[in-house]
Specification:
The protein is of the alpha+beta class. About 25% of the residues lie in helices and about 25% in strands.
């Protein structure tokens, strides 16, 4: 659960990391990583009343709250569900191991954050399309 994104800095700020802090809402289908390792994605909510990410606060998830595994995560940022749904594109990707091309979802981000891609985007896509978008009234919310 903490392979890509550690919560160490949250602990330093007095955040208690326990079952009350993290609410697991469910899990998605197991997917294989590019290495073949099965990954069991969990969908959850991190409850922390003191995280303020409003524009202009100068607070960043990357530096102020989390300690990402730099071999897995370039930076930590947040996007609304509406922003994610609106930004989705399908890209053609070449598998570096097999050389075959395939199409996959991708979520480009503004402000120099690059994009959400790869296994993360493949996990995110059905959650957005099958659960969140219909629950929020389709694309026009």
């Amino acid at each position: 659960m903490r392979e890509e994104l550690a919560v160490g800095p949250l602990l330093d700020k007095g955040f208690s990391y326990d079952e009350k802090s993290i609410e697991i809402l469910g899990e998605t289908a197991i997917l294989p990583a590019i290495t073949g390792t099965p990954v069991q994605p969990l969908i959850g909510v991190l409850h922390h009343p003191n995280i303020d990410l409003a524009p202009g606060t100068g607070t960043t998830l990357d530096k102020d709250y989390f300690n990402p595994n730099r071999s897995e995560v370039d930076c930590v940022f947040h996007r609304t569900v509406k922003e994610l749904i609106a930004s989705e594109v399908i890209e053609e990707v070449k598998n570096s191991k097999t050389g075959y091309n395939y199409t996959a979802p991708c979520y480009p981000c503004d402000e120099g954050y690059g994009k959400i891609w790869g296994l993360t985007a493949m996990i995110l896509h059905p959650v957005l399309k099958r659960i969140l978008q219909p629950a929020l009234g389709g694309g026009g919310f």
